[in-house]
Amino acid sequence: VTSEIQRISELAARFGSAWNRFWFTPADARVPSLLRLLTGLLAVYYLLSHTSDLIVWFGPYGLLPADTVRQLTGGGGGEPTFRPTLLNHLTTTGGLWAFHAVALLIAVGFTAGLYSRVTNVLTLAVVLCYVHRAPMITGQFEPVLTMLLCYLALAPTGAYWSLDQRFRKTPPGEAVKKWDRLRAETAKTVENQRSRRCLYQFFHSLDADAARSSLGANVSIRLIQLHSVGPGQFGEHFEQVIGDDHRGVFLHSAGAHPGLVSAQRMLLGSRQVAVVSVGDPDHHGPRERAAGFDVQTDLDERFEGDGADRQIADS
Amino acid sequence: MKAESRGESPHDEAEQPVGRPLLSLLLFFHLFFVAVAFGGNHFPSALQGRLVGLASPYLRVLNFDISFTPYYLTLGTVDDQDHRIDVFAADSYDAGDDGWIGVSAPGWPGGERIRRYQRLAGTMAFFGERRQDQLSALFARSVGEHFLNQRHIEPAQVRCRRILPQDRSAVAGGTPEQRNPLSERYFAEVYRANTIVDGSRVGVIKVEAAGHVARPDAGGRAP
Predict the structure, then answer these.
(1) What is the complex's ipTM, to 2 decimals?
(2) By CB atoms within 10 Å of each CB, which of A49, A169, B103, B116 scores lowest?
(3) Burial of B151: CB neighbours in 10 Å, binned 0-12, 13-18, 19+
(4) Which of A277, A284, A287 is closest to A307 using CA atoms?
(5) What does DSSP say about strands A248-252 and A273-278: parallel, antiparallel, or unpaired?
(6) Which helix (H) or strand (E) holds B136?
């Protein structure tokens, strides 16, 4: 019993250690800084895509009036829907345009890295305003955009390639070098309480983005990694179609581009895949084989009658 | 274990007693609820529904509860097909089928702008297919009022149609009509309603079946 308890406690300690390594190892701020640039561009594109139809959707007598959206999202009876948006309160054309212009300026500021932390949160807020104003016309793009904006707010995204960096007195790299140098010099005396205090005080004098917030960079990157799961995570839906044999299923139209098939093969890795083809099966074999599938013509009865030809492929 | 040997700063160590467990707990709860919300995106169980409802103030505000977004690659169901909404202008009675005006704007089909119109039509069709007429009518009324007041076109009827996929063999060697993707044979109507215009407001009455379809009268008003 004692050995079992010891084994469990070792396991718990190993898990705790791995957890700490995964989440609390400081990371370089370059990755979140690069992501800031790319995410900022996506946010600008998203807002620009609303420009030509802003009044059509959200203006007076728009296609989706606020009251209609409230009823569709379950708030018709007055219960909270937890979809706060300023756009619900902007009922005039001028107000909408003013909001849109400010939203674009904020997103551009975030992309350029101007007051990155502030503009990051504000960009998230304005994008969420558009999302919550009409959630039924959002697609797969918006959840990814808001997720990135949300997680990047934890990181020092203005540390590199930003206006923040340009206007900063100490370059980010210098602060890190200073920190490393001091740590190496005081490594022998770090156990000394006074040295610790000195280090702690010095820490606050360092550039926050370069040293302290590198923990935020790691947490941000880890959260984005965990959130960006592959299609294998959605195997449940595939199983509903194909049965309990844990195969992924993709439906190919006859005109599907070979590149799409290859991309699916790449994404799925070594998973077993059932390729359900619609149309003439003669058009599919070579293409799937070229993409790396081992195509078989093992037809499944459950697709009888729905007009689909079946080709089961095990990769 | 000393902080130095783990490659951590003394500051991290100073924060560890309070900061790390708290942060770990927050991370766990966040990831747990996000996983539940994603897992329950389609056909959520009662427990998943309750858990997502419990965390909705957090999940919805930050858009982690993507209840309106189908989060799969493709299943090839009718819901995955494109839909479109059309409005029959009251003054186009003589034009016949040419009197139908599409709601969507022209543009690049891959762009977000066009996809929004398709999602609107898809959502309307979703409710129409499931006989949730009250919700379909909300869309039809909004579209009707939009045409009446923004585009200054008096609506007589609003319809939502599903665009059926073309068969490859039909495209390759079919008749001209079979090759035409805009042919009537590639559209299936899922909802149609007559409109009643009252000032700046528009009411709708669903046309129940093909036999019940009443063409608008010359005045543009539904019978």
Answers:
(1) 0.84
(2) A169
(3) middle
(4) A277
(5) parallel
(6) helix B133-149
